[in-house]
Amino acid sequence: MLVRPISENELEIVVKIHLLAFNNFFLSKMGSSFLFTYYRAFLRNRNSVFLGCYQDNKLLGFCAASTLSKGFNFLLIKQNLFAFTIQGIKVLFSKPTALVHLYRNFSKNGSVQFDNQNYAELYSIGVSPEFQGKGVGRILFNNLESSLQRKACEQLSLTTDQFNNDKTLSFYKGIGFNILYEFTSYPNRKMYRLIKKL
Ligand SMILES: CC(C)(COP(=O)(O)OP(=O)(O)OC[C@H]1O[C@@H](n2cnc3c(N)ncnc32)[C@H](O)[C@@H]1OP(=O)(O)O)[C@@H](O)C(=O)NCCC(=O)NCCS
Predict the structure, then answer these.
(1) Peptide bond preceding 187 in cis form (omega within 30 of 0)
(2) How is residue 182 annotated by DSSP?
């Protein structure tokens, strides 16, 4: 298996893997066109680390992280305002409540006073279901960790569900994450913020 940065012409495959790996997650409900816009914005941002794991040139999984956590999602929107406005209009007509959901989730840390968000953040790590449990996630994470260390990042954080999430929680625990705090995201989703020293 080989890990290298994702290129722009692979984003449609990234979206396909996202939809398969995260089939019940809120962001997936925004649709493939929104996800494409989001991941393209991610890839074009200079703070991002966006890696894919390949076997025989086939993408098996990916991870998307940023050296910056505070305000990162809003920075992506600001830098790609036209593309996100088009997506926003589409969602407004198809699922208006999803826009509120999106806004609340993008700003989910706002209410936690003691968290200065002084860490890099892992926004997404997903492996095609047929290749899960074969070491792809661990290889992706090891490469991500090395990239972030080279960029002088000292801590990496992420958010994940508290419930019905045993497999993913054991994955994160196995690679060295600890619970920083618990919080509730919109509308009533119990979450953990996890953290790992790099
Ligand atoms: C979570 C995910 C990225 C892990 O990647 P993966 O390639 O399946 O995981 P790996 O094979 O590298 O396993 C690494 C460790 O994770 C844990 N793990 C993996 N699969 C597991 C399972 N079915 N049950 C329990 N623990 C498991 C183990 O601790 C394992 O370590 P080990 O191999 O030493 O036992 C992947 O399963 C996935 O895409 N899940 C769906 C999307 C998702 O939930 N992403 C995280 C969003 S917050």
Answers:
(1) yes
(2) E
Return the DSSP state at 80.
Answer: T
Ligand 1 pocket (Cβ < 6 Å) reads 21-22, 125-127, 132-138, 160, 167-168, 170-171, 174
Q: Which pLDDT value is given to residue 40?
A: 97
pLDDT-derived band at 102 (thresholds 50, 70, 90) equals confident
Residue in 133, 4, 137 with CA at minimum distance from that of residue 58: 4
| CA distance linking residue 68 with residue 120, whole number of Å | 5
- The span from the CA of 109 to the CA of 94, in Å, is 27
- Please name the residue that has the structure tokens 């994702």: 6
User: What distance in Å separates the CA atoms of residue 155 and residue 149, rounded to the nearest whole number?
Assistant: 9
The DSSP-derived string for 36-76 is: HHHHHHHHHSTTEEEEEEEETTEEEEEEEEES--TTHHHHH
| Token code pair at residue 151 | 């960029």
Tokens of 23: 């089939």
Tell me, rounded to whole angstroms, the distance of Cα 38 from its chain centroid. 10
Q: What is the pLDDT of residues 28-82, one digit of tens each?
A: 888 899 999 999 999 999 999 999 999 999 999 999 999 999 889 889 999 999 9
Structural domains for the chain? 2-197 (3.40.630.30)
Tracing tokens 């940023």 back to the chain, one arrives at 66
pLDDT of residue 109: 55
Residue bearing the CA closest to ligand 1, atom 4: 137
